[in-house]
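re: ur question from yesterday

yeah so i grabbed the chain u mentioned. its 634 aa long if i counted rite. heres the sequnce exactly as i have it in my notes:
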Amino acid sequence: MAVLDEQGQIQIHTENIFPIIKKAVYSGHEVFLRELVSNGVDAINKRRMAAMAGDCSEGEDGKIKIHLDREAKTLTISDNGIGMSADEVKRYINQVAFSSAEDFLEKYKQEDDAIIGHFGLGFYSSFMVAESVELLTKSAKPDHEAVRWSCDGSPNFNLAAAERTEAGTDVILHLMEEELEYIEPARIKTLINTYCDFMSVPVQLEGETVNKMVAPWRKNARELSDQDYIDLYNYLYPFQGDPLLWVHLNTDYPYNLQGILFFPKQTGRADWEKGEIKLYCNQVFVSDSIKEVVPRYLLPLRGVIDSPDIPLNVSRSALQTDRRVRSIGNFVAKKVSDRLRSLKKEDPQAYAEAWESLAPFVKIGAMEDDKFAEQVEELVMFATSATASTEDSSDPISGNERSFTTLDGYRGRMAGDEKLILYCTDEISQSAALNLWTSQGREVLYADTVIDSQFIPWLETRHEELKFQRVDAELDSSLKEESPELSDGDGETKSESLRKLIKDALSNDKVTVQVQSLKSGAEGPAALILLPEQMRRMNDIGALMDQRLPGLPDYHVLLVNQKHPLVEGLLKLQAGGVIVGDAGQSPSEMLARDLAQHLYETAKLSVGGLDPKELANFQTNNLQLMSRLMERGI
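ran it thru and got these structure tokens back, copy pasting raw so excuse formatting
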């Protein structure tokens, strides 16, 4: 047998790849470990497939071994896979970018997901951290001798006969001085956990198996218990508590995709730009940013998507958007909506309890994606002032100490031809108006999230037959008492006198004063700030564009409840006043004017309409006004 001893130049196929040896392909040096371990897993799976075909011996159970030598400054990655002959080294190592995986699959006529590599480049990522690389390999096929290949990072290589008794491959990296962090066991263990944790064969560091190997998302959902899902979530996202619910993804047509997505419990934080879902390719971690794969409104979900069919760039570091990727995004959105629909149908109370955490995904998704909007139309819920039934699970549904309803449920309880949908965005600041409506038996929806300021107008575009109105907008006749008033000697009614008194006291033409007798009577508010619905929405939009909290617009309505004791007291004070000439007013009339101003400021306070300076003055004036009332014995 002739002794093998050959020198030559590596044939780089420039029509297929970049000049990769100059480190132009991979964005991060650490991914070399992912690529080399992936190659080892490929080799093990290739040997298994070839053994099934009778082309080689099966050998021992596959494993990847990593050995660190501080003194020699080497890192060695070994596998007991199919190995290579001298001719195969020439073909698959020296001719860079000639994909051995594709060639192998063509030979065995089998598209097996276990073959990870598609580019023929992974091996050369080693030169990002190594000044020279050795390859010691022996083919598992009969009648092949071991060979050693070496290269110093230039196009020059050396290929010679070597001693190795077992089939497989050792990749020996002679690390650069500036890359010696990769000789530290803790660093390598971290990289294994990051990139290789769910690879299907053991990855051993100095004899200890580091990776978990089992990928739950590759199993059938029937094989997993609830605890299995929870354990995976806690492993991927430690210290985040348990997930709210999960969606198991599994399809092999028209693309191959598995995964598990989790809805996190509401935490007040969400990444709507990058996302927290992890992307794998055949159990190899690729990226934690998949904004090209799933729709933006699902990015804050957590979990794993694993697919060999998602097109990656040559280094697996970036996704390439195409029709297939968009199709995968639609599939994921459909599976999410199906999961939510089944939960609502099977356990309405659990769905209601989860709704506040689910709402941002559903509402934003509906506004951004017409197809998703159709899928979730019946799933959108609002908290409601209506009381949930304790006898059954019909709408409204109880959850987290609130009652929840769908829009259809609300409409089903509306009287006759009623088309007005009432909603409240802040129970505290709108409490007076809210109580006014609910005291008359009217149901009010709570649209109290930031998203709702956009979601309510969007709903109106889909339901043009309905009118959505906030509780502190215009009041309809059902809340007012319509009874004739008697005029005094000057021909004025009490309400006209009161309106004039308050208008004069405010001296503000931008404020419209209305006086009404409300059905809530003395138990209702003394005064309310009202803002027509469309004007309020324009103000809210302007506030959002300016990135500031909405304030009270200059033009608004002050509605005064004529039946409230404080308002009736105002009329008595005015009636008891005696004008003392053009230069001034009586103490009673002055007090009445100050009380009118106080009434207005109190109404503004309830809706957050006082700025800090006005609030300080209000507190001071309030104390002075109380002192004056005490002096008069009121």
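noticed a couple things. Residues 480-529+545-634 form a domain with the Four Helix Bundle (Hemerythrin (Met), subunit A) fold (CATH 1.20.120.790). also The longest helix spans residues 323-346.
anyway ttyl
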